[in-house]
Amino acid sequence: MTRKLVVWSSNASIPASAMNATTAVLIDSGNLQLIFEQDILWQSFDHPSDTLLPSMKLSLNKITGQQACLTSWAALDDPQRGLFSVGIDPKLPRQLINWKGNATYWRNSSVKIRAVLSPTGQFNLLLWNDKSRRWLEVWREPLNKRDFYAECGPYSTCDNNGDTLSSQCKCSKGFRTELHKQWAMGDWPGGCVREKALRCDKGEGFEKFEEMKCWGKT
């Protein structure tokens, strides 16, 4: 007879009435939840490992002292609990602290983050640097004009030739533009139209496009 070996457990406190009626659900965010009727009894996002995913939080309960921390692996190929952990400093709740075992390994100062929407529609995330006394850009979108929604219009493609600040739209094979004046001015959303009516019985087929984005209607 094969012996059953428990290799992992949520270690959740489950009421006796729910012992044989709990359901484990892995939702799209990656959060594993134990559910009884409509109640979430336990979820993995409250117990991070070495990765912080969207909707996860590093938290500190000042009453119970319970923390949700990131914990390193023992090695790149060994997921056992490692030496390092990152969480909120119980004495200075606005700071993050990195522990090596029980000893402080590193701590940060208060983090100041600023999100700005520019007049051009670009969304920027800025981080305050105390040393330089400046806001430093750490992220922005869109980076490329090819990411603009429906920049080139129907049946056309965008090619910026490696230049993120400019783009050039062109009609796909078998299509042409009727808006020559607008296109000459860099106004492409009108897109293209077929050069001739589609007739599938005349040897017409499919064209392969790579690294394309298809925009749907909103």
TrEMBL record:
SUPFAM superfamilies: alpha-D-mannose-specific plant lectins (SSF51110). Residues 4-73 form the Bulb-type lectin domain. InterPro entries: Bulb-type_lectin_dom (IPR001480), Bulb-type_lectin_dom_sf (IPR036426), S_locus_glycoprot_dom (IPR000858). The keyword Glycoprotein applies. The keyword DNA-binding does not apply. GO terms for biological process: recognition of pollen. Gene3D superfamilies: 2.90.10.30. Keywords: Disulfide bond, Glycoprotein, Signal. Residues 100-177 form the S-locus glycoprotein domain. This is Bulb-type lectin domain-containing protein.
